[in-house]
Amino acid sequence: MKFVRSSLWLFLCLYLNFAGAGVPGHHSKKAEILWDTYGVPHIYGKDISAMYYAFGWAQMHNHGNLLLRLYGLTRGRSAEYWGADFAAADKKIRLFKVPELGREAYAKQGHEMKKYIDAFVAGINDYVAANPQAISAPLKEVLPVTGEDVMAHAIRVFFLEFLAAEDNAALGQILRPGSNAYAVGRSRSASGNAMLLANPHLPWFDFYTFFEAHLQAPGFNAYGASLVGMPVLNIAFNENLGWTHTVNTIDAADRYAYTLKDSGYLVDSALVPFKYDTTIVKIRQPDCTVKNDTTILQYAGDEPVVGVKDNKAYTLKIAGLDSAGFFYEWHMMAKADNHREFKAALQRMQLPLFNVIYADKAGNIEYFFGGNVPVRASGDWDFWHGTIDGSQSKNAWSQTHGYADMPKLFNPPAGFIQNANDPPWYCTYPPVLSPSAYPSYMSPVGMGFRPQRAVNMIRNNFSVTFDDLVKYKLNTGVEVADRFLDELLGATDKYPDPIAQAAAGVLRNWDRTTDSMSVGGILYINWYSKLDDSMFKQPWDPAHPTETPRGLKDSATAVKLLSIAAMEIHNMFGSLQVPWGAMFRFRAGAYDYPANGGPGNYGIYRTIEYMQDADGRMRSAAGDTYVAVVEFGRKIKARVLLGYGNASQPGSRHIGDQLKFMAQKQLRTPWTERRDILQHLEKTERLGH
């Protein structure tokens, strides 16, 4: 109770300082929020500042505790607020100077975007002032939120957690960001209208959480989703165009190793001294006193030293940290009415990473490989994807490639674009972009099973309907089953084994999907997981990118592995006849449904990653998040979904309320017209009236 009272007292003191503050008085706060029955805010602002003010308010309404925790972490003061468990995170934030970068990025904002960020922040602060009981007391210590917090949060998420996650070893395979996307042009569309599929795959928690919203003001009308804490829509569509992102195969963060000597490190055989900084991390104790932890931060030039081992100092260098215009670029993308305006926004080159997949009402589609790729003197993808020898100055870089240098494709002859986190070379099929036309470090050459499935589903459909695109999105088929199952079944006849033949009996009746009632998927994937690349007769071949790898090199070994896989499944379940949904579940809040879909590395387009739950079953933890299928006709046609629901605030009825659609393999209709919103209205809020 002492901690809670202390937190409340601190909040009351802070409230006196910020209540009624936020955007200056000349900024309008007049906005209306129509909340629909799935917790989606439809915001009508008197002007764009008022719209973004209400967007901040709405994010606090649905995700207030999460948003304040994220901002508190980004300040590098979370241990001061919430205790010793956060000390390591604070030290990392300070090592990378995230708060300083946030201040610098906020100061670089133009007048217009600074006004919008300030409005967003005012909405956040004013929401808590008006609804203090809605927010957990310890989290109120972060208040008041500032524009610098917003910018620092974005820098942490996009640069440290997305771009540098692999180099930082921050996340395991299951949590790697990913996505699916299609754009279908006029020539391939049954209706003659361009269509877009937006389908980011991210973890279902923390800073990855999406917030679905509809933002409207004079001169602005866009529907989409943003990551919680971001003041603009990151993926969106309007009456004339839309875009989505997939995480691209970009190397914009490099690990360097410097050889230690005496008290410094070597560059071209010359001794260079390290730079040092001292930071004091305040750590709240259980009795609410604060302990100071003095930490020395070490740098090789401007690169933070993240570790020392075997006489080497390891640093991390991230491209684009001086970029500050990413929010304005997204704002202008959402505001654009045509391809010319959208392209002008992209040419700002402020987005730190991401593929951009685009479609519009004029029938155009486009692919763009975005982000800050360093200009390097030499070396290919494999070289720069490893640890770089920092002792040779030739391996240093200081510039990044401009818009003209980046892979891009406008209205390809095949009439469609796809990306499933694969390199740009196969964004359409037959391929148009050639790796040889770009620096060899720009992106690797390769194609996993999920992008192969994306191409294989659409390649022979020359009249794609809206319903086709929805079906592709919800497809739970297993590409590696189409590739290897028949050969495996033939091998069980050639090398008879009682257990393997029993397993083959199950697999012969399997529909090769991961639908909830499908029997055989658990068994097959357990078998396939025991293979490695050396077991394929033909490895992946760039001349046949969507049909390889193929063939089993050693059929006898494949049968032995099937027998082992079958015994494991039988020991676990007491049977080989196990429906997919008996083990895999969609769970959020009070909801629990049999799941469908599975890990993308098996070529499952309905990508869901799972973690073991307390009852031993596998719980959906990542994969499909926000989904939008849009047709840009005379009138927009769209279907959307945010599987885990549009809220995380304790007690919200919208935690998990869309999981039923995921379980039924359905999408929902977004209400974009006011008359439809009013027919599905949960409540109305009028701000500043």
Overview of the structural elements:
A 10-stranded mixed sheet has the order 19-17-16-8-7-6-5-2-1-29. Strands 3, 4, 20, 23, 24, 25, 26, 27 and 28 form a 9-stranded mixed sheet that branches. It has 20 helices and 29 strands. The model is unreliable at 1-26 and 170-175 (pLDDT under 50). Helices cover 32% and strands 25% of the residues. α5 crosses α7, α15 packs across α17 and α16 packs across α17 (555-573). It is an alpha+beta fold and 689 residues long. The protein is globular and about 70 Å long. The two termini are 38 Å apart. The longest helix is centred in the N-terminal third of the chain and has 27 residues, at 48-74.
In short:
This protein has 689 residues and is of the alpha+beta class. The protein is globular.
Q: What are the salient characteristics of this protein?
A:
alpha+beta, 10-stranded mixed β-sheet, 689 residues, single chain, 20 helices, disordered N terminus, globular, 9-stranded mixed β-sheet
Tell me roughly what share of residues is in helical segments: 25-40%
What's the average pLDDT?
94
Main beta sheet strand tally, sense and closure: 10 strands, mixed
Note the beta-strand portion. 25-35%
Strand neighbour order, sheet with most strands: 19-17-16-8-7-6-5-2-1-29
Unreliable stretches covering 5 or more consecutive residues? 1-26, 170-175
Q: How many DSSP H or I helices?
A: 20
Sum up the overall morphology in one term.
globular
Straight-line N-to-C gap = 38 Å
Number of strands: 29
Rounded to an integer in angstroms, the radius of gyration calculated over CA atoms is 26 Å
Structural class: alpha+beta
